[in-house]
Amino acid sequence: MLDLESSQHRYLLTQEAPDLEPFRAGLVRLDAALAKLPGVTLAQPDLAADLQRLHELVDAKRAEMAGTVTLVDSQGMGAARTSLRNAHGEALMDDIRQVMSRLDGLEGASRSQRQVQRTETIDRKEHLTGLLSAALALLMVAKFKTLLAESIL
Predict the structure, then answer these.
(1) Band of the pLDDT at 116, cuts 50, 70, 90?
(2) Is the pLDDT of residue 105 over 80?
(3) Which has more pLDDT, 38 or 104?
(4) Which residues 6+ apart lie within 8 Å of 47 measured at CB?
(5) How far is CA 117 from CA 83, 110, 124, in A?
(6) DSSP state, residue 86
(7) C-alpha 24: how far from chain center
(8) Cα-flanking dihedrals φ and ψ of residue 16, to 5°?
(9) How far apart are CA 79 and CA 84, in angstroms?
């Protein structure tokens, strides 16, 4: 989003078509990133509400940026400046940052939980391996005693 904003601002300053190319390329990358969100939601359903909200905010910010570019093209920088001063785009970015921060926190907690689960799984496997080793040792001792008893008789 920041790259999109930067390239949009560059275009607003220069009003030269080549400066719109990074903006358009950023939109393609944004679409690709947003297309991955449903897969994340399937993997972690507890993130679904925040991811949906993020999608809505990003769509709104994208429309706001594109609208500003359109205003410059159709009505000039004065109209775009008025649009920029209403701070709607800034409020959207603040909301996006807030949701992203919450998602980062949830992801960190989820990562910690997965690490605890892995550690518990490893501990259980090590405990089971120890029990199996002990049982095998007991079986070997019993067999040795049996063989020793047979050879004495």
Answers:
(1) confident
(2) no
(3) 104
(4) 40, 41, 103, 106, 107
(5) 50, 10, 10
(6) T
(7) 23
(8) -110, 130
(9) 9
